[in-house]
């Protein structure tokens, strides 16, 4: 009977969700950024080095890293000057070259794609020499025009963790916008997981430590789907609607899984179900999920897990710095 009630409840919730979002679907549906970067055709046609340049779409980050390692400083500099949009977004390219290519977009920008709502990744700290690296993966309604909050959280985490930790604010996927089916389904998260995996592979290719991923809200869906394929040492989720997995084992990762949820977070009112592609599954803070649950009683709202002075930021800093 209990299972029947749960199934019935799930079906009712799904029906309500479909009914309430059907009218918004056309207006809120997002197209995940895809296709070659601007400047790719010119990059591929460039034969001035006497060798083919790696295809930004198909070359692996390790292949990109090997290509740049075989160039002279002069050759690398020329590629930055002639093809900044490609070099600036090429996972596996040296960090300093990506910074230089993206300099017009800001300080220590590791990726910048202005197409559509825009994608950006920005570093706080010394990524090239850091002992520890963290990546913040934000949730919905984050893009180039609404990036300040994610950048501020990265700065707060880096300050709390210390100088030997670099933190990357990674708005590197198309997030859901507004309330609609994009938020309730996983297709944007699937595209985001592929991009996140490639990004972390790029960090590995240039010799950076395995990162800790800090995944907020819908970003935790992205991290859950990326978990089997990323070399992250830790995956921390907060305000999570689910990770598209029933438990830690189903994530198929060696990363340590941590979870936090404030009692004042509205996400607690979202049903943790997954039915016909809607919903994101089990609550990562539930006892049966198997994550290490972090204290969050002093977090006042859904967007405040990185607020200085909170128990969550203190724990996050310890994880980022390798102390937990």
Q: Summarize the amount of helix as a percent range.
A: 25-40%
Give the SSE string. Answer: HHHHHHHEEEHEHHEHEEEH
What would you give as the CATH superfamily of the largest domain?
Alpha/Beta hydrolase fold, catalytic domain
- The CATH topology assignment of the largest domain is Rossmann fold
- Per the principal axes of the C-alpha atoms, what is the gross shape? globular
Radius of gyration: 20 Å
| Oligomeric grouping of the chains | single chain
Strands of the widest sheet, in order across it, are 1-2-4-3-5-6-7-8
In round numbers, the mean pLDDT is 90
Identify low-pLDDT runs: 1-28
Please, how many helices? Answer: 12
What percentage of amino acids are in beta strands?
A: 5-15%
Task: Please report the distance between the alpha carbons of the first and last residues.
Answer: 42 Å
Structural class computed from helices and strand pairing: alpha/beta
Number of strands: 8
Major sheet characteristics: 8 strands, mixed
CATH class of the largest domain: Alpha Beta
Reported CATH architecture of the largest domain: 3-Layer(aba) Sandwich
Question: How many structural domains are formed by the residues?
Answer: 2
Protein name: DUF1023 domain-containing protein
Organism: Streptomyces shenzhenensis
Pfam family, one: Abhydrolase_8
InterPro entries: DUF1023 (IPR010427)
Structure description:
Residues 1-25 form the signal peptide. This protein has helices at 2-21, 25-28, 40-45, 61-69, 73-82, 84-87, 95-101, 148-161, 181-184, 187-205, 218-226, 311-320, and strands at residues 109-113, 119-124, 132-137, 165-171, 212-216, 234-238, 256-260, 292-293. It has 324 residues and is α/β, with parallel strands linked by helices. It has 2 domains: 2-30 and 107-320, Alpha/Beta hydrolase fold, catalytic domain (Rossmann fold), CATH 3.40.50; 35-101, no CATH class. The chain has an 8-stranded mixed β-sheet with strand order 1-2-4-3-5-6-7-8, sandwiched between helices. Strand 1 and strand 2 (119-124) form a beta hairpin. The protein is globular, with a radius of gyration of 20 Å. The N and C termini lie far apart (42 Å).
């Amino acid at each position: 009977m209990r299972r029947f009630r749960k199934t019935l409840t799930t079906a009712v919730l799904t029906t309500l969700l479909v009914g309430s979002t059907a009218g918004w679907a056309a207006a809120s549906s997002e197209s995940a950024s895809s296709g070659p970067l601007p400047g790719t055709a010119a990059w591929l046609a460039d034969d001035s080095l006497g060798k083919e340049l790696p295809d930004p779409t198909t070359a692996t980050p390790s292949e990109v890293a090997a290509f740049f390692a075989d160039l002279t400083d002069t050759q690398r500099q020329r590629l930055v000057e002639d093809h900044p949009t490609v070099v600036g977004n090429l996972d596996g390219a040296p960090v300093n070259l990506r910074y230089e290519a993206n300099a017009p977009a800001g300080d220590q920008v590791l990726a910048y794609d202005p197409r559509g709502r825009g994608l950006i990744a920005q570093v706080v700290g010394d990524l090239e020499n850091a002992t520890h690296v963290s990546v913040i993966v934000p949730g919905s309604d984050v893009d180039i025009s609404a990036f300040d909050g994610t950048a501020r959280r990265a700065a707060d985490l880096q300050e709390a963790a210390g100088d030997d930790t670099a933190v990357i604010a990674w708005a590197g996927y198309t997030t859901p916008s507004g309330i609609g089916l994009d938020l309730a389904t996983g297709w944007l998260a699937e595209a985001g997981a592929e991009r996140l995996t490639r990004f972390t592979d790029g960090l590995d290719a240039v010799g950076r430590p395995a990162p800790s991923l800090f995944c907020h809200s819908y970003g935790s869906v992205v991290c859950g789907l990326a978990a089997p394929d990323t070399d992250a040492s830790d995956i921390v989720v907060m305000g999570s609607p689910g990770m598209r997995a029933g438990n830690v084992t189903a994530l198929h990762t060696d990363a340590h899984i941590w979870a936090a949820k404030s009692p004042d977070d509205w996400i607690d009112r979202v049903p943790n179900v997954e039915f016909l592609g809607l919903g994101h599954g089990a609550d990562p803070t539930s006892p049966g999920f198997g994550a290490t649950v972090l204290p969050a009683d002093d977090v006042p709202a859904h967007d405040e897990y990185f607020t200085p002075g909170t128990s969550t930021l203190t724990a996050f800093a310890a994880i980022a710095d390798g102390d937990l």
